[in-house]
Amino acid sequence: MAITALMVKELREMTGAGMMDCKKALTSTEGDMEKAVEFLREKGLAAAAKKAGRIAAEGVVATYVSEDKKTAVVLELNCETDFVGLNEAFIEFANTAAAYVANSTIATVEELLEAKMSGEETVKETLTALIAKLGEHMNIRRFERFTVDNGVIADYVHGGGRIGVLVELSCDKNDELLSSLGKDIAMQVAAVNPLFLDETSVDSEVLDKEREIYRVQALNEGKPEKIVDKMVEGRIKKYLKEICLVDQVFVKNSDFTIKTLLEAKSKEIGSEIKINKYIRFEKGEGIEKKEENFAEEVQKQLK
Q1: Residues 6+ apart with CB under 8 A from 96
Q2: Among 31, 137, 156, 288, which residue has the least CB neighbours within 10 Å?
Q3: Taking CA 288 as the corner, what is the angle to CA 284 and CA 294, rounded to the nearest 5 degrees?
Q4: Are residues 29 and 130 in contact, defined by beta-carbon separation less than 8 angstroms?
Q5: Contact at 8 Å (CB) between 225 and 216?
Q6: Any idea where the Translation elongation factor EFTs/EF1B dimerisation domain is (predicted)?
């Protein structure tokens, strides 16, 4: 029996499953709509699709670093509750996906979902099965891959996957000290959350906005116009030390800034060490969580 676009549309509206999944279900059941619905339910696809409208702001941030420390990935997998976020199968999926991305050329979440991580099942199908098993909407929100030739990549995961950080260091010498330093800087990024690597990477619009705020503050404080500009630039310098990683005070030893720490370790190792880049993922950042009154929720369930 020929499967028409109208049949696929009808099944999709009934179940909320994806177009390709609906077409596959209808093909497998020779166009029988009721059997196709059962097919999707058995595969967990219909149930998973119905959960897709829920807000998934919990979950885990997972990292993977290759044995030679030249390739690394940080990946965020979201779910609805922290209970599922602590589930072993959920965490294992996140770790497996991060490792898979590191060992592939995949560049987007969409590509990852269509890839076959193991056997004939796509990542999307594996995730759908996990959704059906654990009963919550889930999604791979984002990932970032780092690769380096001369140097190492270090990772740090804080709070059981609440925050994940990668730091890429360049250096001509591949010493164990380099990995230890990378870990310390990754911890710094997790703790202090710098907005930029250094002053050269700060967006000029950000600085212009801060200058205007400081100018208004100074004038409101009744400072003379002739010294306002000097005050503003002084506050800008202080602000840059707070938001730029290399200018921040090292949290593990306040005698150093990250810049002076790099200089000291470069002398120790006998080769210049630079921070190429870093990335920091915090679970659920930027996702608007739905707040519900517990009493109201109970009433909804009773109705």
Answers
A1: 117
A2: 288
A3: 100
A4: no
A5: no
A6: 72-285
pTM, to two decimals? 0.75
CB distance 168 to 148 below 8 Å: yes
Name, in order, each residue with C-beta under 8 angstroms of 162's C-beta and a sequence gap of 6 or more: 61, 282, 283
Assess whether 84 and 139 both reside in one domain: yes
Least Cα distance to 167 among 287, 255, 258 occurs for 258
Average pLDDT, consecutive stretches of 10 residues, N- to C-terminus, the chain (303 residues): 86 75 89 84 61 75 97 96 94 97 96 89 92 90 96 96 97 89 97 94 87 86 84 89 94 96 96 97 81 51 48
Q: Are the C-beta atoms of residues 61 and 74 closer than 8 Å to each other?
A: yes
DSSP symbols for 136-156: S--EEEEEEEEE-SSEEEEEE
Instruction: Look at residue 225 and tell me if it is in a domain.
Output: no
The CATH number of whichever domain residue 15 belongs to comes to 1.10.8.10
What residues contact 122, with CB distance under 8 A and at least 6 apart?
113, 114, 115, 116
In a domain, 265, yes or no: no
Residue 107 located in a structural domain: yes
**Which tokens belong to 268?**
């120790």
Pair of tokens at residue 114: 């269509």
Evaluate the CA torsion angle 152, 264, 194, 198 in order and state its sign.
negative
Quote the number of domains for the chain. Answer: 2
Please give the single-letter amino acid code of residue 123. Answer: V
- In single-letter form, the type of residue at position 84 comes to V
CA distance 36 to 29: 6
